[in-house]
Structure formats: C-alpha cells, structure tokens
Amino acid sequence: MVRWLNEISKSDAEEFGEKSALLGEMSKFGFPIPRGFVISYDEFDKAMVELGPEIRSIISTANPVNFNSITSASDLIKKLFQEYEFSNDFENEIKDFYSKLHIDKNEYGNVDSNAFNFIKAGRELPFVSVRVSNNSSTPKHHSTQLNVKRTSEIISAIKKSWASIYSSYSILYRLTNNSPFPRAAILIQEMVNASKSGDLFSANPINGTGNQVLIHARRGLTLKNSPGASMFICDKQSAKVIESHESKPNKYYTKDPQDGTTALRTLEEEFKNIPVLGQKELELLVKIAKDIENRVGFPVNIEWVIEKRKFHLIQVRPTSNLFKRKIFSDQFQNRFEKNIAKGIPASAGFTSNKMVLVDSPADLERFNPNNILVVNSFNGQLLPYLLQSSGIIFRKEDISSFGAVVARDFGKPCLVKTKVHVNNDFEQAELNASTGNVYGPEQQSQVITEEPKIEGIDLSGIHRNLESIEHEITALNAKLTEARSQNLLSEADREKSKLISNLEWEIRELKDKISQHLQ
Description:
By secondary structure, the protein is an alpha+beta fold. The protein has 4 domains: 189 residues, Dna Ligase, domain 1; 126 residues, D-amino Acid Aminotransferase, Chain A, domain 1, CATH 3.30.470.20; 103 residues, Phosphohistidine domain (Glucose Oxidase, domain 1, 3-Layer(bba) Sandwich), CATH 3.50.30.10; 59 residues. It has 13 helices and 20 strands. The chain has a 7-stranded mixed barrel. Strands 9-8-7-6-12-13 form a 6-stranded antiparallel sheet. Strands 1-2-5-3-4 form a 5-stranded antiparallel sheet. Helix 10 links the parallel strand 16 and strand 17. The longest helix has 28 residues. About 1% of the residues have low confidence.
C-alpha cells in the first residue's frame, strides 16, 4: 500500500511507521514538511515471506564475538534483497506516485488527466531521499539513501533501505542484546539541498530539564560521517543561548549540481568566521520545538534542514527514542582530584582505567581491552575498539552522532566535545561520564614538549602540496564512503578504501605538524 505523506496521521503508525505518521500529522498543522509518499509495512512483509527463512538461516551463522562473521552475514543478506523482484503492479505504483511528487495539486485544482499529464511532462523529475520508517520501540541503525532520481534508482534504494535493517552494526547490536529485527515501512520525500541542517531536543536530555532546548547545527547535509555539529542550549521561553559549543569544520556535505551525487566540499572563506546559526534562526527553532511538543504531548527529537533560508522538518520522534532518562548524575565519586579532561555527557556511567589518546591508526597499537579510548571523531574502523573499551571520549562528536549512539547502545560511558588537558596517555584515569569530567592522580607528571623549530628550511611548499593531496584524498574518500554505505564496492575495493581512509588521516596529521612550524 502506498499513500501520500500528507494523507496519513499519527494514528497510522501501525501501518506506515512512527516516523512517517508523525510527519504526516505535522503537515496537517502546517509545518513545513517536504512532499513525499510512504510505502506501508505490507510490502516488506511480502518480501520477508520469501526471504525470511534464508535470512534467519544466515543470521544463525553470525557470532557477536567474531565481527567478520557478522560482516559476511550482512553482505549475504544485502545480496538477497538486491536480487529480490517486486511485482510489476508495485513498480508501476511507485512510478506513478514519483511522477506526481513534484507537482502540488492544490496549485492546479481538479484538472483532467490529459492536462495533468501535460503538466507532468514539463517538469524535471525531482531528487528524493529514501528512508526507513518504523516505530521508536526498536533502535534505529538504518541507512538513508540521498539524492536518488528516477524510478529504477528508487526501487534499488528501497531494497538498500530494507537491507540496512540487517547492517553489520544492526546485527551485532541485536545479537548482543537479544533484540528482534524490526519491520520497515519506507518514506520517500523530495530532497532538500540543505545549506544548514541538524536536530534538536525539545527537552534537554543531558540534565533532564524541560525548560531548555538543545540544538545541533552544521553546514550542508547531515550524514553519519559528517563533522561534529555546533551545539546550542537555549532557554525555552526566551530562546537565549545558555551554553554553546562551536564546531568549525572546513568541510561540509552537499549535492553536486552536476550529477546530483552527495559530495564533500571545502567551506567557503566568507562563512568560516560566521556562526552556523544566528539568533533569529535559534528563536524559530525553539518556537517550532515548543509548538510540536505541545501538539504531540511529549518531548521530541526533530531533524531539520534549511534551504534558501526556509526551514523544513524531515523527522519528528519521541526524545525517549534516544534517551530513556537524563544523563547527568552525581552518583559517582572520584578518587583522584586532577582534572585532565572535561566534556559533555553523552552516555552516563563511570569507569577507571588507562586512558589512551588516539590521533592516528598507529596509536591504536597501545590500546588494550577495557582502556578508556580518546579519539577526535567516530569512523567505522574504530568500532571494534569502541566496543572493547570501558569508556569513550570524543573531542569533536555531538550527543546525536553515531559514535554517541554506539556508546549508549552498548552502555559505554561517553563524553563528546571534550577538551583534553593532557597530550599523552594517562596510566590511571577516572571517566565520570555522568558529570562530564575525567580525573587522574597528581603524581603522574605530564611533560608537554613542543616540536623543535626547523631553522633555514622553507616548509610552506610541502604544506601546500599536502593540502592539495589532502583535498584529493578527502574527495575520493567521500565517494568511497557513499559507495560503502550502498554496498557498491567489491571485497578488493573495500580493502583499498580502508587504505584511502588511513591515508586521509595520516596526511592530515602530517599537514598539522608542519603547520605548527609555520606559525
């Protein structure tokens, strides 16, 4: 069954999933929701009648302590979905809805079919996003297909979205926690080419207060591997900023105007010193948060985008879907008094162990299970180490990022946007992720050494060459990241893509070291 998004409401969640149902409800209240249509659970259920027995057999071979077995199981399941064939009737229905998506019927009234076909013929088919829609009682680890165009690509994107229910991480989570795999409705919406995007919580999940709104914002599109967002905590009544944590990445994701693919771009100079959100934009987001919370009757997590100064809402869900309770707590007592790091609590808890600072893949050689891991941001290669750690400290992530979600999923104490006051490992450290502090003993001396200055040698040429190489590798890695998420790489190419990812990290580290001598 396929329905227009603005025709469903929250009472339809059992057929179309909570994500679609709440967006449909909000569209009735006049909130700016991109036009779209929804495929009910029924079509997924039909596919599972055919594929379910084989999927369950494959999952039985996966072992939570053997990540390779989980990856292999996920790859096999993705292949099953790729080879699944929809009925002609279903594909024709999708084609019909898609062809009408970019036309607002209210603009034309009750025109006859010939006139309507004439109107369609004069319009360029739109790019769309394809997302899984299910209920908040099941954890979300699904991929989103962006900038999809043409019916054939939408059909393929639906299969990829279904397959993401069985991603490696999703299988690992559900086997570890004995959690069932969810059903999947599908939401297809006109793509908004965001100049800014982010999410917000209508009640502050860190301290549990309903008098504050927490807002994340970044330039461009929000993807799993996007740079950490700037964070603003605002008073719910006045919208004044109580606390802010600026993030100033030099890159952002956007739609390539030539081919419509998702591309990584260098931030233009004129925007580098401008806050991602102004006061008027913050005020409008706080107003939207209050209004939606009042209408649905519970605190909400909202994903939003801005295109050409116009706000659009692309997701509304209960805050409890991400946070079952407030994070902040003073129940844990520290033995040590030296504060060696301070961040924002993203997953509550306390742990004491060696703290290992990781700035490059080579640093991971010093890591042992149950150590506290300190990294700049999350990437897929870090996942096994995060799962073996006793606690996680991110310098640049935010509380909605995938790395923070991993920490909460597996009960790991976690800080984000952390300022680390030491520059090497700490043999004894106490991570109090319920207050946001990390402590260590006074007796451990921390020798902070500066790189010796190189006299008489001009490093500027090398720095420029490294910048050029970094730009080329970063652009290639962005394309490979998109290809990996869509399972478009062979086994050999996946190994090469890991090399590219490592090179990007190492080149950036070399460039940063040289920068210290150029200052």
